[in-house]
């Protein structure tokens, strides 16, 4: 009976966390504020969290967008409007509602279904006490991501499409539908080339799985055909002419913009305070440097998944590869932090502190951008909402990390003070005339330091997963 029960409670994330006793978990379930919702069943839980997420998005969309009222450059809203050739000759005010509506529809049609798919796959097969409340909390973390909402529905972009396709591909991998995963991720890559941040993780994990099957060559060939077939369908309108194809390809990598833009919290921008990369090296050299460092920092995670692929290792691999691209690749934007935040949100149930810190500092790293867009009120509101959603359900959610080091409370307190201090300084003080972007630089360096620490932690965590799994198996045998 005990063996059957243990098998029944197996769950994709169980390998990365130590389960509490069934009685303690049941008590936690009965005491959780989420119980009023989860005890009503699955459909009401999905409906309520989804509707709340849509209301938050709609509320944010009522605020200004990127470049509103700032001719002649405008911003992402105007760029997307022209790119889609919708009402080109009409003023932006006449089509704002339509454009906002298209982003909301993209969320409903792509991102939400993908999140539901992942959520079902990730939480299926487990009936531990307290899991229903944890699962509802996880769904809220996935759908009410403040960074994604502020960028897509405030600043204005369509990241929800490529990120939704990526989440669907991840869910397909976890449910052993590798061909579907290949097709979905290929669509994500074609929608937004920044999805390449996840490519090393998908490649290494799927290759590692193929190498462990009876006919590795056949398995790799199937995946290759699916990927090439998907690309062929998407690119079919441009294949009639080599000139048309080359024109599209030339626009995919804007190298002429330089190795970084504005004040993004990555290695190149943070170190440019001391090393003037753009002055010392030409673009070809910088492209080579960024390529070598990005690939080198991705390799440990890739080697891990090729040698010992696992579901949890794959999720950490996604986070590690996207962090490597964010920190070291060429032409990174502030908004690119959305890509590492995606796998961090998928891991939120197993590593909540990681998601909390990455979200808070991801928000801070985009604060100057969002402030320029006139999105201060939704920024502060969503920051507070995220804090409440994260902490109210489980006050002990951070207990494991807090107890892991005696220095943690001191460092954490100092970091939080700097976090709020930088917000206040940016809002109420004026920088020196000689250094007009001093505060942006301070925020950028501060966030880069935290992102680098997260990258070190997650790489170490991925490589210790196999040891953790082994120790769990030994405990079960005892």
Write up what this structure looks like.
The chain has helices at residues 2-8, 22-31, 35-38, 42-60, 76-83, 92-123, 131-143, 146-156, 159-174, 178-191, 199-210, 216-235, 242-250, 267-271, 277-280, 283-307, 311-328, 338-346, 352-365, 367-372, 376-391, 399-402, 408-428, 438-477. By secondary structure, it is an all-alpha fold. The radius of gyration is 23 Å and the shape is globular.
Give the secondary structure arrangement, pairings included.
Blueprint: H1 2-8, H2 22-31, H3 35-38, H4 42-60, H5 76-83, H6 92-123, H7 131-143, H8 146-156, H9 159-174, H10 178-191, H11 199-210, H12 216-235, H13 242-250, H14 267-271, H15 277-280, H16 283-307, H17 311-328, H18 338-346, H19 352-365, H20 367-372, H21 376-391, H22 399-402, H23 408-428, H24 438-477
Characteristics of this structure?
478 residues; mainly alpha; 24 helices; disordered C terminus
Radius of gyration: 23 Å
Give the tally of structural domains: 1
Major sheet description: none
Share of residues in helices: over 70%
Described by the principal axes of the CA atoms, the overall outline is: globular
Which stretches of 5+ consecutive residues score pLDDT under 50? 1-11, 13-28, 125-129, 470-478
Mean pLDDT: 84
- Give the helices and strands as they follow along the chain: HHHHHHHHHHHHHHHHHHHHHHHH
Percent strand: under 5%
DSSP, total strands: 0
Helix/strand/pairing category:
mainly alpha
Number of helices: 24
**CA distance, first residue to last residue:** 16 Å
């Amino acid at each position: 009976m005990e063996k059957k029960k243990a098998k029944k409670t197996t769950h994709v994330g169980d390998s990365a966390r130590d389960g509490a006793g069934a009685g303690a978990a049941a008590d936690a379930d009965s005491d959780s504020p989420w119980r009023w919702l989860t005890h009503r069943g699955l459909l009401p839980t999905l409906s309520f969290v989804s509707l709340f997420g849509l209301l938050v998005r709609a509320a944010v969309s009522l605020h200004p967008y990127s470049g509103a009222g700032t001719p002649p450059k405008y911003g992402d809203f105007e760029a997307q409007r022209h790119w889609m050739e919708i009402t080109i000759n009409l003023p932006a005010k006449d089509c704002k509602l339509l454009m906002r509506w298209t982003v909301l529809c993209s969320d409903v049609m792509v991102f939400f279904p993908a999140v539901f798919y992942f959520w079902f796959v990730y939480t299926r097969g487990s009936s531990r006490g307290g899991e229903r409340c944890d699962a509802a909390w996880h769904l809220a973390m996935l759908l009410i991501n403040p960074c994604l909402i502020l960028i897509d529905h405030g600043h204005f972009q369509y990241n929800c499409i490529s990120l939704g396709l990526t989440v669907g591909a991840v869910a397909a991998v976890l449910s052993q539908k590798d061909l579907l995963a290949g097709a979905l991720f290929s669509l994500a890559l074609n929608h937004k080339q920044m999805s390449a941040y996840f490519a090393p993780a998908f490649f290494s994990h799927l290759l590692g799985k193929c190498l462990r099957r009876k006919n590795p060559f056949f398995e790799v060939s199937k995946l290759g055909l699916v990927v090439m077939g998907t690309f062929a369908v998407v690119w079919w309108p441009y294949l009639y002419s080599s000139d048309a194809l080359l024109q599209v390809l030339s626009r995919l990598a804007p190298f002429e913009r330089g190795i970084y833009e504005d004040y993004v919290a990555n290695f190149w921008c943070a170190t440019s305070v001391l090393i003037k990369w753009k002055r010392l090296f030409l673009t070809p050299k910088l492209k080579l440097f960024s390529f070598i460092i990005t690939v080198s920092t991705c390799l440990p995670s890739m080697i891990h998944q090729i040698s010992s692929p696992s579901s949890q290792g794959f999720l950490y691999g996604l986070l590690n590869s996207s962090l490597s691209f964010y920190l070291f690749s060429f032409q990174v934007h502030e908004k690119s932090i959305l890509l590492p935040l995606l796998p961090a949100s998928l891991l939120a149930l197993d590593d909540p502190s990681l998601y909390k810190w990455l979200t808070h500092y991801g928000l801070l790293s985009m604060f100057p951008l969002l402030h320029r867009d006139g999105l201060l009120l939704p920024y502060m509101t969503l920051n507070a909402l995220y804090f409440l959603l994260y902490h109210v359900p489980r006050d002990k959610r951070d207990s494991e990390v807090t107890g892991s080091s005696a220095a943690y409370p001191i460092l954490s307190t100092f970091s939080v003070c700097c976090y709020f201090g930088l917000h206040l300084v940016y809002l109420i003080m004026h920088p020196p005339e000689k250094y007009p972007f001093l505060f942006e630089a301070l925020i950028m360096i501060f966030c880069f330091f935290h992102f680098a620490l997260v990258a070190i932690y997650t790489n170490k965590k991925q490589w210790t997963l196999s040891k953790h799994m082994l120790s769990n198996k030994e405990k079960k045998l005892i």
